[in-house]
Amino acid sequence: MIKRFENRALSNELLIVAILLLLLPVISCTKSEKKGLIPEDAFSDILYEIHLGNGLLIAPEVRSIFSERDTLQVYLDIIESHGYSQEQMEKTLRYYFLKQPKKLMKIYDRNIGKLSEMESLLLKAQQPDHEFTNLWQGKTDFHFPDTTKNRYLHFTHILQTPGSYFLKFSATVFPDDPSFNPHFTAFTCHADSIGTGRRNYIPGLKYFKDGNPHTYSVTIKVNEIYPVALSVFFFEHDNSPDPGQPHAKISDILLHNIL
Q1: CATH 2.60.120.260 fits 142-257, yes or no
Q2: Are 159 and 220 contacting, i.e. CB atoms less than 8 angstroms apart?
């Protein structure tokens, strides 16, 4: 969008400059006249803001705000905000247009470069800050009946470094699933004592048995400096005895660090 503003705004500004100059008496620029010119850096900043403002006024949502106000008044506000008058701006424009046209174009080119840099920063800001690496090892999709005979979809993952981790997945449990209260459970413990160590349970998640996919997520905090085992049961139930193979699907498993 900024590029569209650039081309449109530049042509409009040059037209405005030309009109202003036609309305002014054409006289030679003596040394005494140069004393009243706006300094080049300030002049460049003013043109840049006029350039940007003119581009923004093209947008309907911005244009509607200033619909009852003369566009030229917006430009005058910009000039005065820098501490200069309309007369000083006209005098400076006349000088550059008549005596320094190449320098005037260089100023415009420099301002377009600044707008291009702004566009790059905006595009970068719209992109994700980080590309997360999926730390989950192995398959990320499972269908019941499960051919691997892993009835509870139990997996253990070793977290090597302290910090916070985010586990996200999708679960679909069909209405004819025989499981009572199907749910997700998980806990962490020291990696060297998975079977006998103290377990830190993560809040469980109950599934809906409506045949539709639902997204679930949990946050795992690891404070220890040594490796921790994350033990996950993607499909627990409260049946006793086991009713047989469930009818469900676990998919899109994602595990990553929270930076």
Answers
A1: yes
A2: yes
